[in-house]
Design a protein that fits this description.
four-stranded antiparallel β-sheet
Length: about 120
């Protein structure tokens, strides 16, 4: 593993992993450099895929479908706006709506028409 890559694993049965975390059959999670420089697959683990680090500059953003909530579980059917400067790994179940987008920069002779698609109350 490198700091720009993580591995996504799936539990093939319920067990306690090498890091002391209880895993349920079918559960998926990421192993990053924070856990260790190397990871040897346990008999109860299956490699799903390698995950690349998503990097946003100060002039970029993305919309993530099914973001992970504070409870560590996906909020299915919702979206979350993530703005740069920021780096993160997409967690299992999360998807990018249209990839990384550049923030539009307007000159003084341009306008931007904005329409709300959800209820919004200005603070």
């Amino acid at each position: 593993m490198t700091e720009n890559k993580a591995i996504q694993l799936r539990a093939t049965s319920s067990y306690k992993d090498i890091y002391g975390v209880e895993r349920k059959n079918g559960q998926e999670w990421l192993i990053t450099l924070k856990q260790g420089e190397t990871h040897i697959l346990d008999v109860n683990e299956q490699l799903v895929k390698e995950v690349e680090l998503t990097v946003l500059s100060s002039r970029q953003y993305c919309v993530v479908y099914n973001p992970i909530g504070e409870n560590g579980k996906n909020k299915w059917g919702t979206k979350e706006l993530r703005k740069g400067e920021r780096s993160f790994f997409l967690m299992p179940g999360e998807e990018l709506e249209k990839g990384i987008q550049n923030i539009p920069v307007l000159n003084m002779h341009q306008n931007l028409l904005v329409r709300a698609i959800n209820f919004y109350k200005d603070p």
